[in-house]
Design goal:
heterodimer; A: 778 residues; alpha+beta; 5-stranded antiparallel β-sheet; 21 helices; rod-shaped; B: 179 residues; 6-stranded antiparallel β-sheet; 3 helices; globular
Chain lengths: 778, 179
Amino acid sequence: MSLAREAARPQAPRLSSEHAPRVSSGGGSRLRSGRAFRDNPRLVLLGIILLLGALVAMVTLADRSAELNPDFVSEVVLYAVSVADLTMVIALGFVLARNIVKVVVERRRGLPFSKFRGKLVLAMLGLTIVPSVLVLIVGGELIRSSTERWLRAPVDDVLRLATQIAHDYYRERETLMEGHAARLAGAIPATSVIAGDEESVRRAVAPEVAAAKMALVEVYRVEVTGGRQRVTPLVAVESASLPRGHTRASADLLASRIITGGTDPQPLEPLEGGGELVRAGAIIREAQTNQPVGVVIASDHLSGGLAAHSRRITSAYEDYNHLRVLKRPLQGIYLSLFLMMTLMILVSATWMGLYVAKRITRPVQRLAAGAREIGAGHLDHRIEAETRDEFGSLVEAFNSMASGLAASQQKLERSRLDLERKNQQLDDRRRYIETVLERIATGVVSLGADSRIETINGAALRLLGVDRSVIGAQADEVVQRDDLRPLEPLLRHARGGGKAPAAQEFALARDGRELHLAAAATPLQRDDGTFEGAVLVFDDVTPLIRTQRVAAWRDVARRLAHEIKNPLTPIQLCAERMRRHFTTAPPTARALVEECTSTIVGEVESLKELVDEFAQFARMPAPRAVPSDLNAVLADTVLLYKGLFNGIRIEQRFADALPPVRVDIEQFRRVVINLVDNAVEALGGNPAASSNGHTPEIVIETRHDPVNGVASVVVADNGPGIPAADREKLFMPYYSTKRRGSGLGLAIVRRIIAEHGGSIDVADNTPSGTIFTIELPV
Amino acid sequence: MNRVRVYVGAMLAALLLPAALLAGPGVTVTPLARDGRLLVSFRFTDSFGEDLRAAIHSGLPITFVYEIELRRRTSLWLDRTIATATVLATVRYDNLTHRYYVTRKEDGRIERADTVDREEAAREWLTSFDKLPLFDSAPLERNGEYILRIRAHTTPRNASFVWPWERGIAGLAKFTFIQ
């Protein structure tokens, strides 16, 4: 594809690496190199011109074949045309086999338009092969019959008889000259020849030459040299009508042959002035000894016209006979040339038919392949327009369509990316909200339009005491549980379709503790007012209520301290005054007064101590926390109990590398003392009090959770433990399981821990006893 | 029994058929070493068929081409060609005088030319060669086994259209060179 076309092509969308730009379909270097000839009109034209040139050469060769040298015809031309025929047969076979195999393979592979192409190829082959074979058969028969007609009997007879006439005439002249020579041999005196008497010989010959109308008579004398006979010219008598230009060579040769007894035929001597000399010779013998003494050669002159006509007749006859002899090679050449032309036409027509079939189907195949590529998502696929005809326009339209699709795809891709980004944002936001919902302490439950639970966060699971299996369950079924029944009115309100949210507070028993929840239900409605679901929100208000209660108790304590403590001192003073007053009274009365006043004073003291504790609870100062070593604080505190309770083992399990914790050391020490006192109280203060058979033991342990940033202090005993129903009340003011005590100890402990930002929890120890766990932020 | 006879007859026919096919034109070769030359006598027998006679009497110059190869026999490999020679004998019949003009050439040199008026004489000229000193015997090894091979054909060929590649008739003589 040219750079200009490449530049004009619309920019394909950059989808991915696998959609790299593709130049063209179904091509490859082999196809492009193959197109170099087939799609180059100049080369095709050159090929046609060469083909026509070859045809013209063959026609010329056929026209002149009869005039060529027979050896050249039979040794070169026939071989050449046979080789050319064989080559063309092989080429035709190759072209046919290749394309037939190709068509068959394409059909088996199910390539598009393979059936159409196969039918087209078969039709074109039929249209070319059948007429070509018919023409070849008919043409071959015509050539055969034409060559047979060359050698028709009348022509043969005429030429043969004419040649025979010419031959007979020549033979007759030779016979005549033979007679003249024999007669002259007898007439010439042998003695004159032996003596070399030229004049005598000439006198004997000259009258005979004139009388017999001979053209030339030559007499030779025989000489014997070294036992061999040889002839020497003696006399030559020629007619006045003999043209100039003859030589003696042929006569000398003939004389030599005759004297040596040769039987070779007499030669003919062509003359420069036209015509030929027909010669004959005879030996001159000595009459008595019959020894050869000379040779006489008599020659007759055939005129130029007669000789030429005879030669022409003979030449024509021989040419005619040449045709007869060379009939087979010439027929072969004509048939070969005809076959060659037929094969050339056949090869050309076959190739052309296959080429045309390919020209028709290839663009369609490429379009189909391009459509498949487009269908596979390769929108940057383009087809190179090979022609400027209708197929070229079709290809251009296809490319335009592909460009449009690519642009649309690009827009869609952008939209998709934008949508993905928004979805990602929504997903992030959703995950963020889910995380927030999961992390917040407020429980959130969403209901669908069918009142099924769609979502529930961790806080709701924890507060309601359910697991995630409730997702998808009907909310009505879930609240059928006893402890969740207080939610039914709220649920009904939410489903009722009211737009205003409903709020409700209720308490649930959870692990033996009372859990106070503030719930709110908000119905969800569409714009048309139809119920779409509801959102239930739960807040754990237990600490708030607890704080409110503590505040109330503190207020009560302050009032008690103020209202009770003030009258106690006058009461005590009055009792002591009464005791002093009755010191002089009779013993009975004095004893009574003494007992009563002692009781009053003792109870007043007790009330004072009680009031002091209330006052301390009410006026507890804010902690002054400093980073402290909890292990050291605990160790110092436990040291106070050393030797006091020998029957109770106090074990310390302090964590290594416990980081400093910000605590008010005095307040924290009071917490530990309170817990250890309670433990000692639970254990009964001595081993004998242990009812479960185990050695009374108090374990004071510290732990560190670096992940959550928490330091824990555990105080555990193996006493009888605390019933589950009493555990929550433990931290309430004025609740005590002891016979003596204000019930403020654990309330103060919880308050101190809470003001340190921590928490305290109570649980059963294993196998018996109680564990108090304090968690403080590090 | 008749069937056996038929089988035996067919087998005999199959055996005799090649011999019958071989009966026809042939080349007989006779070598003779003398005076430092290898004299070659050969005869192209039964070569004058009617086609050839007609071709000669048509006046067309007909050439008998004899390609002669002297080879050294090798037991384990192809025979080695030592020397080659080409003898041409050409005849042209004059239909006017009914004479045969004959010429012999050896390796391109005209050795003899003559005119004869008898067909037999012309045939002898063309097909019978006596003691032609074609090769020098000096390079030949004593007691060596040699082959003298002659391939003969006539030109112009009366070749067929279908298969023009005729190789001619060949004959050979094996001999041991004894000095």
